[in-house]
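User: Structure tokens for both sequences below?

Assistant:
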Amino acid sequence: MKLSEIKEILKNESAIAFELPNGELVPSHFHVTEVGKVSKHFIDCGGTVRKEEKINFQLWNADDYDHRLHPEKLVHIIELSEKTLELSDLEIEVEYQGNTIETYGLGYNGKHFTLTTTETDCLAKDKCGIPEEKPRIRLSTLQAQGSCDPNGGCC
């Protein structure tokens, strides 16, 4: 989800909820403790230099049950961050405390914001010799291509 999308959704919401990939909701007394721009400048295993930028939200569970983050307050935080950090309309990643700091993508299911799982990937599969996708072969095709006949004496 991009920054413009979350702002548009928040305009029409009366409450904010984040749903973890397992279906549980982040406790409603969470805080957004950071909004930032994360820049990553790196070289992949194939030798290509790359740059990535994302917007980062950090969610934190406080023991503060009296203050809930309302949509208009989060929009204000986002707009202040856009101005101060010169944020463009980038993809959002969300950090949340699990076993360690876990990083998620952000989606919306029409009711809650959803924290979506992310995965590592090789960006240079063509240079590493890793096929994009394993070839799928039907066993019936292999047999039809002259496989060994049990009565043919080749086995």
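Moving on to the next sequence.
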Amino acid sequence: MKIYLAIKYHPDNTNREFITELAKKLEKAGIDSIIAVKDLEQWGKIHFTPQKLMDLSFKQIDLCDALVLEFSEKGVGLGIEAGYCYAREIPIYVIAKQGSDISNTIQGIATEIYLYDQLSELDEYFEKINLLFQRRIKAS
């Protein structure tokens, strides 16, 4: 399974450790991931115009089986990526810290929303997503 991880990232990389930890948890669950800031922009080493970055992001999303949307912190780009997935009928798994404000729009297009207190809770959730995907593949 391959997912696109949509997450609000900070230009100064202050949430790099958090993003890296999410990527490790996905990998541990047997899920390959594409993360724009890590894989396309290489943590700020490569700069794209906003239009080029969105174009590259959409191309990567098209190669994925699902979107994992980390929505503890809102961002316009996250909504665009989620909307693109919804239009392409790509499953959208929203994860967010307990107490996060999940907009009605995101709630309306999400395949599932999972709220967590600790990052460790995501291990089991990511395994569940991968298992559901594997079952869907076997059934088709």
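User: Anything stand out in the second?

Assistant: Helices lie at 16-28, 36-40, 50-62, 76-87, 104-109, 121-139.
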